Here is the input.
Amino acid sequence: MAKIFMRIYAAAALVITVVGLAAMFIAPPKSLRADRDGVPYFTPDVLNPATGTAVPMGALIRHYKGN
Here is the structure.
């Protein structure tokens, strides 16, 4: 009897894990798409016109926010 419950428990854990991972890949929540400032991940760097160097978008936002 214990083996049956253990198999049901293991199968339920497997199903929950697969469904959870599938949900994260198919329709990830908005919090996984952008950082706390609202900048989407994998945003390219911006060009600093004064120096000609690339600046990460997060650093630019922190600069204008004053953090």
